[in-house]
Every structure is written in structure tokens, then in C-alpha cells.
């Protein structure tokens, strides 16, 4: 997947898919429910580090600017083995 594949519209669509109640933020519950429905996610193995890595302001929710920042981090670190980077990549590959 190339940088060109991730448009603003695609980011917005993925964000809205995760934000099931439409309040403009992704809560840990929404986030982990989405991951469990779309892949081989196991909460015990992950221990919440991926969510905390994207929650830059520490409010225990991810707003759209934080989501964009996490996606941008993936762009910059596309070849790394960072679990947060791999998670973002796997989400966008599904949509």
C-alpha cells in the first residue's frame, strides 16, 4: 500500500467506521471492538499499547487529528516493525 492509497476521504471513512456512535472520538471500547471484528486481535497480547500510542493528548479517546497523526506516523515508519505502525497498516489494508 502506497501513500497515495490513503486519501483524506479514506482516513475519514475508516475513522467513522471505528467511531460507531458518531460522537467524533474513538473510545477504547470502539477501537478494540473494531479490531476484534476485523482481524486477529487479542487484547491480552496487546495490553492496550496501540490505543495509548495514538492517544496523544492523554484523554483516553482518539479524535480525528490524533487519528491523522497516527496514520502519518505509519507513512514515516512504513518499513518499521513498530506494532502501532503495523496496526494502522493492517486497518487500511482492509478498507
TrEMBL record:
Coiled-coil regions listed: none
EF-hand domain sequence ranges: 6-41
Short name of one Pfam family: EF-hand_5
Domain of life: Bacteria
Protein name: EF-hand domain-containing protein
Origin species: Streptomyces nigra
Amino acid at each position: 500500500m502506497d501513500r497515495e492509497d490513503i486519501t483524506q476521504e479514506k482516513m475519514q471513512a475508516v475513522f467513522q467506521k471505528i467511531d460507531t456512535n458518531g460522537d467524533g472520538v474513538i473510545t477504547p471500547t470502539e477501537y478494540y471492538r473494531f479490531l476484534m471484528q476485523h482481524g486477529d486481535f487479542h487484547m491480552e497480547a496487546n495490553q492496550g499499547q496501540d490505543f495509548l500510542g495514538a492517544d496523544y493528548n492523554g484523554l483516553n479517546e482518539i479524535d480525528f487529528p490524533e487519528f491523522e497523526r497516527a496514520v502519518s506516523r505509519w507513512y514515516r515508519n512504513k518499513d518499521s516493525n513498530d506494532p502501532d505502525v503495523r496496526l494502522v497498516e493492517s486497518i487500511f489494508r482492509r478498507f
